[in-house]
Write a structure and sequence with these properties.
By secondary structure, the chain is an alpha/beta fold. It has 3 domains: 2-238 and 355-413, FAD/NAD(P)-binding domain (3-Layer(bba) Sandwich), CATH 3.50.50; 244-351, Succinate dehydrogenase/fumarate reductase flavoprotein, catalytic domain (Flavocytochrome C3, Chain A, domain 1); 435-517, Methane Monooxygenase Hydroxylase, Chain G, domain 1 (Up-down Bundle), CATH 1.20.58.100. The chain contains 13 helices and 20 strands. It has helices spanning 12-24, 61-71, 78-97, 130-143, 222-229, 262-265, 291-305, 319-325, 327-335, 392-410, 435-451, 458-481, 486-507, and strands at 2-8, 30-33, 50-51, 123-124, 148-151, 154-160, 180-185, 190-201, 212-213, 234-235, 240-247, 254-255, 269-271, 310-313, 345-354, 357-359, 371-373, 378-379, 455-456, 516-517. The strands form 6 sheets. Strands 1, 2, 5, 6, 7, 8 and 17 form a 7-stranded mixed sheet that branches. The protein has a 4-stranded antiparallel sheet with strand order 11-15-14-13, covered by helices on one side. Strands 10-16-18 form a 3-stranded mixed sheet, with helices on one face. A hairpin with a 4-residue loop joins strand 7 and strand 8 (190-201). The longest helix is centred in the last third of the chain and has 24 residues, at 458-481. The chain is globular, with a radius of gyration of 22 Å. The two termini are 32 Å apart.
């Protein structure tokens, strides 16, 4: 199969890029690959909203830039921060033009929320299902485009480079090129060769590497792992953001229900088991401190008191407004016996967002030619050591636009693709026991959660390294001997991502942003990105 523009992922980043590309090239073929149904993405589960300056009387670009830089703890790229903040309003307007609806007040003005780390009210939202509304609007627009094809239930195995032509490719190889991908089609159970002049990775995050995460089951770090195997550059993987307030449900593993930060923005108060509002002991901004600070504070309270959660108190809030703004949260709590008007909500941190990823420049170009990356799988320089709340959807739209602009300007210069061999699966057999995959996944998530979580130290990281090495060896041997399956491909990718998080954490001899090592409790004078 051959296409002109290949998009891996169907969240806000991939769909925005596809729409822009098809509008610019109505005679070219744009193909979107997604490994589940098209709407099953990290975007769909984004609750809070999109941070953007649209009230210049009370807000400014300079304030949004400043808030982002403070949250990023010295590692943001100031030029990229300025690009995203200043180009954001135009991208939001395009999204609205495609049909996305954000909440307005009785006068017709947008209702703006405020979240941790923000100095002003600037969060556009659609109740507490903003991501779902954005995904709906974009998918409707994509389905109306005649030259966009979506292939669902199709999982990419690897990026095709000169390596597949028989050349030795290392990290020092100049001009590594991407020619497309090999992908497993779950419907046909066939491995297809999909070639393209331009490929965009918009594969989302990697929260499933941890035991508890706000991410859906598809968030297995596929794009990051594939680029690393293809000898592309990855950076800052140690900065994993734990959302402070995921709903705590005893015995629940995997995807946890998110209680958006906007609840605290509207007045929710965190309390420990004794009912004490503890955040004032950790930060002057109290419950609206940046996420890294709040997550560590909650972790500290849980360990100090021997509890598995803290409590989010919303009982004093206007319940009519709460139900209007957070209907999804209200109903979810009721479904498990929690009446928000009378009961406090049990919450605990859960893996939420990867601030590092595929290293890109200001146009979304990776270190591999003709391969772009945007959205959570990328590391553009916006988030630094800690993402400011609700900046992720904005970044995805701005960089999807920039990837499109650069790819469109270079498309006619790209040479014809070489003759690529088909996928070879000789010498492999069907796996006899799924337990070899499922147990390794449990071990990986246990290791990452216990040793490479909110708080780390050198002994934990050394133990994690030894265990991840063994899991890698066992899984690679399995991969070479059996036919591939989505479960095996995801496990392989997650082990690679786990390794990269551990390696980045081991290299960083300081505590900065989301990376807190008790053996190095202070920041270094040297500000550096850890590139792997």
């Amino acid at each position: 199969m051959q296409t002109d523009f290949l998009v891996i992922g169907s969240g806000i980043a991939g769909l925005t890029y596809a729409l822009k590309t098809t509008q610019h090239f109505p005679d070219k073929k744009v193909t979107i690959i997604t490994k589940a149904s098209p709407d099953e993405t990290n975007t769909k589960y984004a609750q809070g909203g999109v941070a953007v300056v649209n009230d210049l009387e009370n807000d400014s670009f300079e304030k949004h830039i400043g808030d982002t830089l403070i949250a990023g703890d010295g590692l943001c790229n100031p030029g990229v921060v300025e690009i995203v903040v200043k180009e954001g309003p135009a991208r939001i307007q395009e999204l609205i033009d495609w049909g996305a609806k954000f909440d307005k007040d009785a006068e017709g003005d947008y209702r703006l929320g405020k979240e941790g780390g923000h100095s002003e009210f600037r969060i556009l939202h659609h109740k507490d299902i903003t991501g779902k509304e954005i995904e709906r609007a974009l998918l409707d627009a994509v389905k109306a485009a005649p030259n966009i094809e979506i292939i669902n239930h199709c999982m990419v195995i690897d990026i095709i480079t000169q390596h597949h032509l028989g050349y030795l490719v290392t990290k020092s190889t100049p001009d590594i090129e991407c020619y497309g991908v090999y992908a497993l089609n779950s419907k046909t159970n066939r491995i297809d060769k999909i070639l393209s002049k331009v490929t965009l990775l918009a594969t989302g995050g990697n929260g499933q590497v941890y035991r508890t995460t706000t991410n859906p089951v598809i968030a297995t770090g596929d794009g990051v792992a594939m680029v690393y195997r293809a000898k592309g550059r990855i950076e800052n993987m140690e900065f994993i953001q734990f959302h402070p307030t995921a709903l705590y449900e005893p015995g629940v593993r995997g995807q946890a229900f998110l209680i958006t930060e906007a609840v605290r923005g509207d007045g929710g108060i965190l309390r420990n088991k004794d009912g004490e509002a503890f955040m004032e002991r950790y930060d002057s901004r109290k419950d609206l401190a940046p996420r890294d600070i709040v997550a560590r504070a909650i972790d500290s309270e849980m360990k100090r008191n021997g509890t598995e959660h803290v409590l989010l108190d919303c009982r004093h809030m206007d319940m009519e407004k709460f139900v209007e703004h957070f209907p999804n949260i209200y109903q979810k709590c009721l479904s498990i016996g929690i009446d928000v008007s009378k009961d406090m909500i049990p919450v605990a941190p859960a893996a939420h967002y990867s601030c590092g990823g595929i290293k890109t420049d200001e146009w979304g170009r990776s270190s591999i030619r003709h391969l772009y990356a945007c959205g959570e799988c990328s590391s553009t320089g916006l988030h630094g050591a800690n993402r400011l709340a609700s900046n992720s959807l904005l970044e995805a739209m701005v960089f999807a636009h920039r990837c499109y602009v650069d790819a469109a300007s270079k498309f006619d210069e790209i040479k014809e693709l070489p003759d690529i061999p088909d996928w070879k699966a000789e010498g492999t057999s069907e796996p006899k026991e799924m337990i070899l995959i499922t147990q390794s996944l449990k071990e990986l998530q246990q290791v990452m959660s216990d040793y490479v979580g909110i708080v780390r130290n050198n002994v934990r990281l050394q133990r994690a390294t030894r265990r991840i090495d063994l899991l890698f060896e066992e899984t690679e041997n399995l991969y070479k001997s059996v036919t591939v399956s989505p479960q095996l491909l995801e496990l392989r990718n997650m082990i690679t991502v786990g390794y990269l998080i551990i390696k980045g954490a081991s290299f960083r001899k300081e505590s900065r942003g989301l990376h807190y090592n008790t053996d190095y409790p202070f920041k270094s004078d040297i500000v550096q990105n850890i590139v792997l």
